[in-house]
Amino acid sequence: MKKGTLILLFLLNACSISNAQQQDCMLIEDTFYLITLDVRAYERYPLVMMGLTKNDLFKNLKKENITTLLKSFYQNAYYFPHLPHSMEDLILTCLGDSVGYTYLKMHEVQIARLTSYIVTKGLKKQFELDSGETVYYSNLTITGSFWRVDKNHPGIKTTSSEIDIKYLQEVQDCYIPFEVNVIKRRKTPIWRKDGN
Fold it and tell me: Is the overall model pTM greater than 0.70, yes or no?
């Protein structure tokens, strides 16, 4: 009887973990602006934070200091991790080790290409915060499938060039690319229409 009970408990536990994992890694398809904020200051390491949003946020950013900038950014944007470093743990968590390693191997070139596009192809605008830091704002349009996960998901890892999102109350959800189909550079930057 004890042996049967233990097996039943084990199976129920395995099923609940499997269901929880599927819920934690919700796959969606959509088009977003991918915005990068690269903050530079004298004698400090660069701070690079990225996010996905449905609207260009340039005009809505508060430019007093780094804290107000990030708060105003993530009030309207989903956290997007640095690639490829922050992606591996999430893929292994969402797909499992065997399928996850296969996915990483098969998509190695695509992930490298996406990383390169993010760094080189976005429209850039430079501005200064009232506190003296220089910010490079970059904007791309990206279409594809993304995992939507909670910021406390065990697969989410931040890099040393980011602020840990656990300390950013405005960040609730994170979007991680699964299959990216289209990356477009914006033809008409929103900030050039009015001269800013």
Answer: yes
